[in-house]
Amino acid sequence: MLKWVKVAYRNILRNKRRSLMTILAISIGFAAISLFRGYMDYTYWGLRQSAIRGEGLAHLTIFKKGWREKGNINPDKYMFSKKEIRICMDVLNSNGHVLLSTPQLDISGIVTNGRISTIFIAQGVIPEDVKVIEGSWRAFRPIKGNRLNKKKLYGVEMAKGLAKILDMEPGDYSVIMSPTLQGHMNALDIEVAGLYDTGTEATNDKYMRIPLTIARSLYDTGKADRIIVLLDDYKRTDPLKTIIQKKLNKAGLATEIKSWDELSNFYSEVKDLFDLIFLFLFIIVLTIVIMSVVNTMGMAVIERTREIGTLRALGMKRRAVGNLFAIEGGLIGLFGCVSGIALNLLVWIVIRYIQPTYVPPGNSAPVPLMVNLVPQAMGLYAFVLIMLSLFAAVFPARRAAGQNVVNALGHV
């Protein structure tokens, strides 16, 4: 076998220019799909962390059954009571993979500074639990002023766009108003503890994050509309979702559990779009590789017709001639993938050094343009391209092997 590889390698060197162009095409194609795959991997990681940590969805969100369909019509009926929250927390805390479970209450209403009033949507949270959910992601979410603090009972975090509308800065006071669950109008004083950027223009002019106690006081209730669950690994999300659902049903609680990717529409939409673009790019690269290898092998067959006739006249079988061309195709694919890996590494180093940023559509802040190295994907692409190059040489190889010996020797 090694002898055939040496012969195929020498044949590649005999056609340096054509072989080099084919290797270059495979190399650029390999680097293109590997870099885009690395960009997708980094983007998926960022979107996943943004949804789980940044938006505070954690991994699982438990609603009372019917909340998502009828919660707006009769919120009091579809919220968790204190007793139900306790039962739910007991079930969750008995699972070793649950790091944290915390009740939350979303509210909405009108916020005013005395001169200007506008609508707001607020997430009522327990400040200490938010710190755990955000984890290391907190470094990517800088805040002007102070974060939520249990010592500052009426301190809230306000989105920058909303604060700009109300002309407010950290330390300023405001009033929020909303009807209670019983339909009575209620109002509370709040202090703007800090300003933050939600990351999207659609939410930056209306969002706030407030302590759960304020949300409950404004709605005059002790209930919660959801329970957020943080796991030790996002890969356990789907299996634990099923397990927890069964345990809650057994405990007599009618609930509905949603995973973070089901609640984050933005993640799903971006992932579907990127998967489609990647498939399109991969098909283009495969087409280029096939055409390049077939063209190189086809030209090699034409130029080496007399050589093939000589080999056949010396007793070489058709299958052996075909195998020789197939090995040449496989070697070209191998050299192309190796140089593609080198090109991929070079671009990866340059990107890491420059650290470029860009502002995606709908975002209000720039995000880094980074690329991950995904060795498993690179290995798979290399294998596919080498096999493709090898099989792409089969057709010209069959034609080469099937020529009449006399005609081949007389070919000019």
Overall domain count: 2
User: Biggest sheet, strands in spatial order?
Assistant: 2-3-8-5-7-6
Alpha carbon gap, first and last residue: 31 Å
Number of strands: 12
Low-confidence segments, given as residue ranges, are none
**Rg, alpha carbons:** 32 Å
Overall average pLDDT: 86
- The SS-based structural class is alpha+beta
Question: How is this structure best described in words?
Answer:
By secondary structure, the chain is an alpha+beta fold. It has 2 domains: 1-52 and 267-410, no CATH class; 56-262, no CATH class. The chain is 55% helix and 18% strand. It has helices at residues 2-14, 16-54, 67-70, 82-93, 127-134, 160-166, 212-219, 237-250, 260-263, 265-303, 305-313, 318-354, 375-392, 394-401, 405-409; strands at 60-64, 98-112, 117-125, 143-145, 155-159, 173-179, 185-196, 207-211, 226-231, 255-259, 357-358, 367-368. Strands 2-3-8-5-7-6 form a 6-stranded mixed beta barrel, surrounded by 4 helices. The chain has a two-stranded antiparallel ribbon with strand order 11-12. α2 packs across α12.
